[in-house]
Amino acid sequence: MSSRAGGNVLSRRALNRALLARQLLLRRERRSAAAAVEHLVALQAQNPRDPYVALWTRLEGFDPHELGRLVAGREAVRGPLLRATLHLASARDWPALARLLRPVLERNFWTGSPFGRQVRGVDLDAVLAAGRALLDERPRTTAQLRTLLGERWPDYDATSLAYAVHHLVPVVQVPPRGVWGGKGLPTWAAAETWLDRPLDPAPSVERLVLRYLAAFGPASVADVQAWSGLTRLREVAERLRPGLCGFRDEAGRELLDLPGAPRPDPGTPAPPRFLPEYDNVLLGHADRTRIAAGAAGRWPADGLHWSPLLADGFLAGAWRLRQDKAAATLVVEPFDPLPDPAAVEREAEGLLELLAPGAGRRTMEIVPS
Predict the structure, then answer these.
(1) What crossing angle do the helices spanning 124-137 and 158-168 adopt, rounded to 10°?
(2) What pTM does this model have?
(3) Does 206 map to a domain?
(4) Which pLDDT tens digit goes with each residue over 66-87?
(5) Is 28 left (phi over 0), alpha (psi -120 to 50) or beta?
(6) What's phi and psi for 271, nearest 5 deg?
């Protein structure tokens, strides 16, 4: 197949099934938690529970304590990465990802947050050195960083000084937060100290793009940039083009892909899947219609934390857990009548076993659409 995108048009449904196959969402697979985290490059982890739900919905026989042991043992870590948001990545991947994505965090600090303008004029190198030294002494909460840095630079906003360290020093959140069943305030350590290894001095952005295609492709350059937060990746794509194959979507956009990557038949059945709140399968493209077509403006607007539900491969509703001492209810709000409510209920039973194992009564409630 030509490396140039020509007449090979992939329908929305074909792109959906390719994405689901690479995201381990067409069928649960037998992989270790570590292997799945690395295949997916990193897992959204704004909510500490999210990586566990993400792997439960993808892996056969998933044991949340397996992932918890990786976090507790410093074999997986949580910190700001893709799009400057919290992600969980393997310790093996972290040094390269953190180095490659530093421009994203720097840009977010200076132009995407209110904090950068609050520290204009400060000796930023001194602030970052002090912050790094404080975190090397021992892991500290944001409040502790704010207090200690504010005492040294009283003429500047202390919260912004603390967030300068969060964005501009490679940091990770440490256990027990992020461990299955663990609780604790978000507490930060310098990543290089926590992992006892330096950042990769020369990571390959080309390898990052190829790994993205393996987990999210076929995709456009704009898709890779939306997923990573990086810019100016067209030159990278051009260097990779001779080893890639090309397609177009129904709107005529060029899509690049790995020659041997899965592209299942568009008619392949897709079971319902409960996803965590910020799963990258929904956030990993500039054009999200391959998985969220028709869902715009239909998300529940009550301010509660809802998570996505897929039915027939596409975003079809939202769910949340309602729990008290006696019972746990998985509340499902579909956008339209579900095509197979019984299959959704079976999935809900498994998710409730994961999230509420001690509940005396576990039920699913469907809010009428």
Answers:
(1) 80
(2) 0.95
(3) no
(4) 999 999 999 999 999 999 999 9
(5) beta
(6) -75, 160
pLDDT in tens, 271-319: 999 999 999 999 999 999 999 988 878 999 887 889 999 999 999 999 9
Which pLDDT tens digit goes with each residue over 153-194? 999 999 999 999 999 999 999 999 999 999 999 999 999 999
Which parts of 244-288 fold into alpha helices (H)?
280-283
> What is the tally of structural domains in the chain?
2
Domain boundary among 195, 219, 251: 195
Residue 215 contacts residue 202 (beta carbons within 8 Å): no
Strands (E), 32-177: 43-44, 76-80, 86-90, 140-141, 171-173
Task: Please give the distance of CA 35 from its chain centroid, rounded to a whole number.
Answer: 16
Domain of residue 310 covers: 305-366
> What ranges make up the beta strands (E) of the chain?
9-10, 43-44, 76-80, 86-90, 140-141, 171-173, 187-190, 245-249, 254-257, 273-274, 307-311, 314-323, 327-334, 361-366
CA 276 from chain centre, in angstroms, equals 9
Helices then strands, each counted (H, E), the chain: 16, 14
Q: Is residue 82 within 8 Å of 280, Cβ to Cβ?
A: yes
- How many of the other CB atoms lie within 10 Å of CB of 245? 21
